[in-house]
Structure of Carbonic anhydrase:
Amino acid sequence: MKAIVVMSAVTSFLIRSGDWSYDNLDEWPETCLNGTTQSPINLEKASATRRNFSEIVFNNFYNVNVTLQNTGHTVQVTISEDDQNTLSPNITGGVFGTNYYFLDNLHFHWNSEHTIDGYRYPLEGHFLLYNHSYGNITNALNYIHGFAVISVMYEIEDSCTYNSFEDITETIDDISKNVSVSVRLRNKISIHSLLPTTTNKVFVYNGSLTTPDCNEGALWVVLEEPSCIKQSQYEKLSGIYSDRDALVEQNTRPLQDLYGREILYSGTAAMKKKFVRL
Ligand SMILES: [Zn+2]
């Protein structure tokens, strides 16, 4: 797919967050160091509170105009500004109830930041959403549950059927060594194709952004069922360079302390092993 390369000041909280790296975690802002509802965390089924949620409803996730950007820390897929209207991708239902949360961007972490019962996936996608009543992500970051993140895990599988990683990675060469250059994809993509089949088995908890400024108040919804990416696509996605001309080998924040937070879980709890006498 051909793409249009444009230099632009993309409004993104990731860009404005400035000069930080995974090599100097102890120099991250105050909230990152002293917050008590930080992300990511290990999600443990056995100790989670069972709760049933209705299905999340994904609206307008099929034909979406997007731009692609190397932020220096990740590959970010941002909803194009001309799509930021009522036809923009948004969600409702599930733990979100009757509230509408609009998609600001999605981006990726390799390896995964959350772990599920201690298991770390090779890739995690973060779908960053803001409550529509706050207007935009910048404003929404100031409010508890003003913003939310839906998290999707990915396994590397060469039998993975077509999804939009194809469109994204086809264009990635244009940005892999160019930090802050935005590339608008010529064709619309299906963001829905990056989701797993089952979206009602979820972990829900109160957390934060996993990058500076680590804003707290995020409603996290981590889908239990993974989706997939092909090996060649994974290599392209994780092959970007930072503004220091270094390969972004990993962009995974370490696990944070739970500090007694409750984790809600709507899937099937792991069966406790029974001691069987033969
Ligand atoms: Zn993220």
Residues 6-17 have pLDDT under 50 and may be disordered. The chain is about 10% helix and 30% strand. The longest helix spans residues 231-237. Residues 107, 109, 126, 210 surround zinc ion (CB under 6 Å).
